Amino acid sequence: MLERGDVKHSAQIAGAPAIKEAEPRPLPVYLRLVRDPKVVCAGGFILLLVVLAIGAPLIAPQDPLAQNLLNATLPPVGFADAEPGFLLGTDGLGRDVLSRVIYGSRVSLTVAFVAAGLACLIGSLLGLMAGYLGAITDAVISRLVDVWMAFPPVLLSILLIAVIGTGLHSVIIAIVVIDWTRFCRVVRTETMNQAQMDYVVAARTIGFSRPATLFREILPNVVPVLIALLTLEMGIAVVVEAILSFVGLSVSSDTPTWGGMIAEGRQIVHEAWWVLAVPLAALFATVVAFNQLGDGLARSLDPVLRR
Amino acid sequence: MADDLLIARGLVVAYGGHSASFLGARKPVPVLHGVDIRVGRGETVGIVGESGSGKTTLGRALLGLVRPAAGTVTFAGSDITALEEKARRPLRRRMQMIFQDPMSSLNPRHTIGRILTEPLLLHGFAASRKSALSMVHGVLDRVGLSRTTVDRYSFELSGGQRQRVGIARAVVLKPDFVLADEIVSGLDVSTQAQVLQLLKELTGEMHLALAFISHDLSVVRSICQRVVVMREGQVVEEGPCQRVFTAASSSYTRMLIDAIPLPTIDPGWLARGAATESAGAG
Amino acid sequence: MTAPRLAIEALSAISLRANNAPILRRVSLTVDTGEVHGLVGESGAGKSTIAKAILGIIPSQVKVTGGRIIFEGRDLLSLPANELRAVLGRDIALVPQDPSTALNPSRRIDAQMTDGLRLKRGLSAKEARLRARALLAEVQIRDPERVLSSYPHQLSGGMRQRVLIAAAFALEPKLVIADEPTTALDVTVQKQILRLIRALQERHGTSVLFVSHDLGVVAKICDRVSVLYMGKVVEQGRTGDVLQAPHHAYTKALLAANPRYDRPDTGLEPTPPEVVAALRAEIAAFDAGGSIGEARDG
Known about the structure:
The structure holds 3 protein chains of 3 kinds. By secondary structure, chain B is α/β, with parallel strands linked by helices.
C-alpha cells in the first residue's frame, strides 16, 4: 500500500485546488546552465581547451616540433635562466612545452569526443534494446556483452593495435571496442528499472508501440545516467590515450601528445621537472573538468534532479 | 446482457510460466483461477479484495495488458484476447486506465502538457500541437486544474493534483471504459473525497463504464453500483452494493465488512470474530 | 490525582527549510498510565513530528522553538544524548509504520529481536532468544521458532508487524508510540493487530500514543483522542465525545469527508469554502498572536 501523504504542503481540507504558488517558474535551459557554477567552470575550461585545440596553429607561440638544442631544458618563466619566448620552458630537445601541450590537446580532445561518443552511441542503443524489446533480444545482447567482457581489455587493445597499426584511429577504435559494454550494461539496467514504472504502462495503454514507448518515454529518463557515464568515459578516454602514447602505441611520435610528453618528461624529471609536470597537470585538469561538467549538466538539465 | 460492454469469462492468469530461460521454464504462479466479470455501459463496478486476491491482475487482464492462460475478454463484441498487439491498438483508445501511484504513472521528465497532448496527437484527435493544447485546456478546466499546469512537471504538483492529471489523461481520448486501480489509496481523506466526486461526475457525464479496484470497501460503497468481491484469485461474491453491504451471502464478505472500523464507539468490535480468524498464519 | 505518564506542554516547532513556517503550534496533550491516546490528523498535520520529538529523532531541518515533553518527571527535550538513549528502548518504544522497511532485510529475526534485550537488559544470547520466543508466542505467532529463524522477506506484512510489536513490548516499556501501525496492512489483518495491541497494552499497563489518520481505527482502540490540524490541537477529549459530538469545524469536516459503508451517500461532498476559509483564518490569527518562534522559555 502506498504511504499516505506524498503531499508536500501542509494538510488542508481544501475547497478549491490550486497550484502551489511557492514554486518559482522554471527558467529556460540556457539560463539554468549559466547559473550552475559547475557547468560554468568546468564547461568553460573544456571550451577553452577546444578553442586551444582548434586554434593551435594561431595560438601556440612556437612550433611544437622545432628542436633547438641550444635552448634545451629551459625552465618556465619566473625561474632563473628562463627565456621569455618559452613560457612554460622547453624539453630535452629544446621544444616549447606550452606549444606542445596546446597541440597535444588536439589529440586528447579528439579521442575524448569521438571515442567516448561512439562507445556511448553503440552501447546505449544496444542497452536500450536489451532492456525493453523482449526476452530474446535481451538474451542475445547480454550474452554478447558477457563474452565480450571476458577478454582482458589491455590485451585486446594491444592485439587490436598490432593488427590495425598505430595511429589515432586505432586508439579510438580500441576504446570504443572495449568500453561500449560499460554503457550497454548500465543503460540496460536503468532501462529495465524505468520499464517497471506505471508511466510506461500508461504509454502502452494510450496506444504507443514498444519502440515508440522506448524512445519517447524511457529514454529521457535514462539520459541523466547517460550524461554522467559519457563524461566519465571522456575522462577515461583521455587517460587511455595518454597511456597508449606513453608506451608509444598511439599516434606517430612527431605529433605531440600529453602521454608522450609524460614519457619523455619522466626520464629527465630531476633536471627538468616541468616537462613532466605540465602535461600531467593538463591531463588531470581535463579529467576533473569532464567529471564536474557531467555532474553539473545532469543536475541543471534534469527537471527531477533540480528540485 | 445487451448493455454489457466488457465481459470476461473463465479468466485464468499465471505469472512466470512463459518467460524464456535457458535453465528451463520456472513453475508458473497462478493468480486468477477462472474469473467471470461483466461491466455494462455507463456502469461503475467495484472490484474489492485484500492483498493477494488478484484484483490488480484482473484489471490488467481486462485491459489486455496481461495475456490470460485461459478464458476470454470481450470488449464491445470483439474478443480482445484473441487479437494480436497490432490489431488491439485501435481498441486501446476506448479502454483507458488510471493508476495507483501518481508519482510513477506520470513520466517525471515530461511536462503535464506533453503527457496530455501526446494521446491526442497519436490518435489523430488533433492535427497540431496547438489544437491539442486547446483541447487539453478544456480537460484541465473540467478536472479542476489551472491551465498553467501544462508547463509543470509532476513533482511540482500535490498528490491530489497528480491524480487529477491521471484522470484527465484517461478521459482525454473519450474512451468507453476506464479502469481505476487503487487511485485514491495514497491520498488524504479530503483529497480523496474531491477525486471521487470528480470521477463520479465524469462517469455520469461521459457515460463511462468504470471498473474501480480498491481494498477500501467504504470508498467502493460511495461510488459503485455493483461490487465484485475477490479472494485468492476467485470471485467470492458479486451483486449490487445495496444488497452486498447490508446482507452479504458469503461469510468471507461478511468478515471483510465487519473488519472495517467505523468511526463509532463499539466496545464489542475488537473481540468479535476473534475465534474464527486464524492468527499467526504468516 | 496521579501525574500523567507523558505530558506534552505547548510544543512548538518550525521548518527551517520552508522559511520558518510553523509545523507545530503549541501542542499540548497528556497520556495517563494505561491509556491509549489517539493522535489524529491528515498528512502534514505534524503527527509524526510530535512522535519524532518524543523519540529525539527530529530531522535537522525542523527546529523546536518552545514547549516541554515531560516523561517521568524529566523534560526529554533538554536531556543530554546519553541519558535520552537510556530512556529510549527501555521506557519508550516505537512500533513503526512500515513493517517492510523497519526490519533489516539482511539479518534474521532472532538477531534483530535480541539486540535490545542483550544491550539493555544484559541477557546472554541464549536467554535473549528464549525471551524472544516467548514474546512471539505472546503476539499469537503459532510457530515462533520458524519465524525466529526467518529473514524478514520470508514473512507476510502482518507477521512482520507482529514481530515489531513484540520487539516494542520486549523491554516492558512504559510508553509505546505506535506510528500508524496498521496503515500498510489488509483490513482483516489490521483488526487482528489492533486487538493484539490492546491486549498487550492492558496486560502490561503500557501507555500508548497511537498516531493515525484513520478516525475509524482511533474509534476502536483509543480512550482519548487529540485532533491535529496544521500543527495545532483543535479538539481533545474522550473518543466517544469527540466523535459523537465534535465541537470544532475541522473535526466535523473530517468526519464528513470519510466515506462509510453503512452510509452510502457519505464521503463525496467537499468541504464548503467558507469552512476552509474559517479554518485558515483561525490558524492565521493564532500565528499573528506571536506564540511561535519565541525563545524557549520552558
